[in-house]
Write a structure and sequence with these properties.
Length: 266
């Protein structure tokens, strides 16, 4: 393991100073937080060392843990290999699952037919633009431009906005911007922060113990989760793309180091 970096040291000190009576609940974003980015989201893989860390977290009887992501839950389960003790929130919180918990927002599927048509139109509209990827999640659709040239990036964004505009104007869909991506979701007032609160309440009820939450994320999509956790727990950013966290570490490798130290020093 590489030498510790200042952000890791400071976050670890905050972890060690947590209240003794509270149950830790560690929630992590996936892409850019647990896993390094890839120009193709389908090609993202966790190193085996992180699989083992997540399995250790999920097996600890004295704490709870989970992943909160824009990805769908089956995708997160397959990529994390974290085991049955983990919580998952997918689609930016619209779906949540874990031990004794299963939730899907009752309005999540309203826009599914429109999103299906849009995904097909976006694939056609961006065909031939190198490095541009359209990800159809069924209940949302994402334009990824991480691997695109500046020119193809601009072309893809222009075409995306033109196709999305009627559905944004009608109020059926909303835009969720992120790092090198734009996502169209059902226009529901529900965020990662709501999903975090849902998991916190469930864990407290299940274990009859107050929760001390830790949230680790890397992008603007995590700001609502940071806000939900900030006053009662520990917030850690994994980039300079978000301003809502109390501590900051540089990359997913630093997150791995921090998690290892948290488990080792507990």
């Amino acid at each position: 393991m590489r030498g510790s970096v200042p952000g890791v040291d400071r976050a670890l000190a905050a972890w060690q100073a947590r209240p003794d009576i509270a149950r830790p609940l560690i929630l992590l974003d996936f892409d850019g937080t647990l896993a390094e980015f890839n120009t193709n989201p389908a090609a993202v893989r966790l190193p085996e060392s992180r699989h083992r860390l997540l399995q250790l977290l999920g097996a600890r009887p004295d704490m709870s843990a989970g992943i909160v992501s824009g990805r769908r839950i089956p995708d997160l389960r397959a990529r994390s290999c974290a085991g049955p003790g983990f919580y998952y929130a997918g689609l930016h919180g619209l779906e949540v699952e874990g031990p004794g918990l299963r939730f899907m927002h009752n309005a999540a599927s309203v826009a599914a037919p429109t999103i299906g048509v849009l995904a097909s139109e976006l694939i056609d509209a961006t065909r031939g633009l190198s490095g541009v990827v359209i990800e159809d999640k069924g209940l949302s659709v994402v334009l990824h431009v991480r691997g695109a040239s500046r020119q193809d990036h601009l072309h893809a964004i222009t075409r995306f906005k033109a196709l999305a505009e009627p559905h944004l104007t009608s109020g059926l869909l909303r835009v969720q911007p992120g790092d090198q991506m734009i996502e169209l979701l059902p226009n529901i007032d529900w965020t990662k922060g709501d999903a975090v609160r849902c998991i916190m309440r469930h864990v407290e009820a299940q274990h009859r113990q107050v929760v001390w939450p830790v949230y680790v994320g890397d992008d603007a999509t995590d700001e609502d989760a940071f806000e939900e956790v900030r006053e009662s727990g520990l917030t850690i950013a994994v980039s300079n793309r978000t301003a809502g966290a109390s501590f900051r570490v540089p990359d997913p490798a630093a997150v791995e180091q921090l998690l290892s130290l948290m488990l080792a020093t507990d």
